[in-house]
Amino acid sequence: MVFALVAALGYGLSDFVGGLASRRTHVLRVVLVTYPVGLAGLLLAAPFAGGQLGGVDLVIAMIAGAANGLAIIWFYSALATGPMNVVSPLTALLVAGLPLIFGLVTGESLGAIAIGGALLAVIAVVLVSREERTAVDEAGPVRFTARVGWLTVGSGAAFAVYFVLLDQLPADSGLWPLVVSRGTATALVLAAALVGGQFRIPERSAIALTITAGLLDAVCNTAFLLALRTGLLAVVSVLTSLYPAATVLMARLVLGERTGRVQRVGLALAAVSVTLIAGGSAAA
């Protein structure tokens, strides 16, 4: 559970720093740096962790990476063309809920208190992810079209597939599943940046932020993998999905951004859900 919370904190911080960078340059230029930097960090750490990966497991890791890469591309495309206050919470619901359902259906056992905490956490994720009406929404005809809907559902489902597939890989494979999956995702992101005409280094003011986001990404992915190896997918996926809470809190503390009433309720529910999951897991 501790590793899952560390992963959630890391993802939240990475998103916050990456979000700051995205205010200064195109988002594809941000991931053009963060993904390779994260991959480099994992490559440096992997030999010290030992393990090996091959055969079917190698293919699974590559599919997981492809799912992660597509998820990022589809998610940002949905945010760019649809209402953020709908796209973000719907994606969060799928990311938190689908692995939870998969874990329970495939035989993972949780106590009633832990299940209640997990369901409460899913609600908290949706509430925290819901943004107040944004400038994009106020600017005019930004609608939740069929295309935006498919992109949103596709990104949430793809993130969930990434979670589930990583959980299927052997515990003695070290960090190599992350290296392979991140390498595949990086290739997709680079291709998307090239096709989108954004295959350029970010502006100088965003370089330090993008590198920091990439290093944080390597840390939180490592924590997430360790969480999967020491806990249940149903619990780990939900706790990790609480990462928007860290992003919202950082925006509040560092930038002084206003926290909406719905988000404050979500933050409170997140705290309660973690307590319930911890107590329920310990009792089980």
Descriptive notes:
This protein has helices spanning 2-22, 27-49, 55-81, 84-105, 112-129, 135-138, 146-168, 176-195, 204-230, 233-240, 243-255, 261-283. The protein has twelve helices and no strands. The longest helix is centred in the N-terminal third of the chain and has 27 residues, at 55-81. It is globular, with a radius of gyration of 18 Å. It is mainly α. It starts with a helix and ends with a helix.
Q: What's the overall geometry?
A: globular
Put simply, the count of helices is 12
Q: Give the helix proportion (percent range).
A: over 70%
What is the N-to-C succession of helices and strands?
HHHHHHHHHHHH
Structural class determined from secondary elements = mainly alpha
| Average of pLDDT | 86
Gap between N and C termini, in Å? 14 Å
Strand content: under 5%
List how many beta strands DSSP finds. 0
* CA-atom Rg in angstroms: 18 Å
Task: Specify the biggest β-sheet.
Answer: none
Uncertain segments: 133-140
